User: Fold Sulfate/molybdate transporter from Pseudocalidococcus azoricus BACA0444.
Amino acid sequence: MQYPRLRFNWQEFSGSFGDIGTDLPLLIGLITVAHLSSANVFTLFGLGQVLSGVIYGLPMPLQPLKAMAVIVMTQKLSGQTLWAGGFLIALIMLVLSLSGALSWLARVIPLPVVRGCQFGLGLSLASLALKTYIPEGNTWGYLLAGLGFLILVALPKQKGIPAGLVVVGLGLLYACSVGLPWSKIALGIHWQTPEFQTIDPAALLPGLFLLALPQLPLSISNAVIATQQTAEDLFPEKPLSIRQIGLTYGLVNLIVPFFGGVPVCHGCGGLVGHYALGARTGGAVVIYGGLYLIVGLLFSAVFNDVLGIFPMPILGVILLFEAWGLLSLIGDQVQESQDWMIALLVAVIAFSVPQGFLISTVVGTGLYYLGQYTPLNLQKVKQESPPCQP
Assistant:
């Protein structure tokens, strides 16, 4: 079915919340640990979403760079190191895109490996949701998560009902019941815009080795190749090129660090999450970005107070639903036993090993091409080849 580039209705509004379970905790974690300005972070992040929706005409999200975010939060790195890492990975991605190397990698890395990376990311998101977000709040947390999951499973079957909006509304209702600081919110409204800043040259080497290089394999496999494949799966009538995705990835991150934002990438998980909750056009991420713009420009001073009482299990169940969409994409590999085993091995390595996306991509690609030359496959090719004509 052909959809318009931008559509603004209840379904798109529902789908706009499909990536909030991934984005919001990472943004808050980076703001807290790296001492970033919430106004800068939310405003730049929202603007990026709006531009992505307009450029692609699809629910093509921008997400915080996951490997960078985890490293910054665990090693307590500075904002300058984060911005330097984002700037340098932008340069690397632009070189790969413009030289054609990124497109070559997309041709070389086989589909079972891409599916394995998607499955591994799905496992990671499901683990995060089940271990961290949903258990928070004890009994009430599990009740909210269970109710939210039932809503997400049942309501998308009823045309026109925005399941994502209903689930987020459930979280807001809970927050209101425990007491939102309305007076503080009203007094805290003020206009604040990001200002241009420079990157400390001393942060470039740490940014390269601590952040950019560890992030690169995940970005190539998941943010570019798997995202292109996922877009093709969901929107075959709107083909995207690897080069296009790599260029927008690089160009956005050339700008974001100089205004105090968080480095971002496209992501197959976010695309599936938006789609699963009803998004079919770029309107969903325009709406999603608009919400972040409002928070960044007007409410950044009181945002943490509101977030402190918003139930994390609601974010967790949205994250779990996104994970389920990623896990289901592996279904087309079941028919071929060799492809299925490679995809499963890639998923396990990506999920469980440090630098797992890089290691699993190399191992899976090597096994795939070695498998083409096993005696069993050569015999199969020989049997399927047409007989020579006399």
The beta strands are 63-64, 264-265. The longest strand covers residues 63-64. The two ends are 48 Å apart (CA to CA).
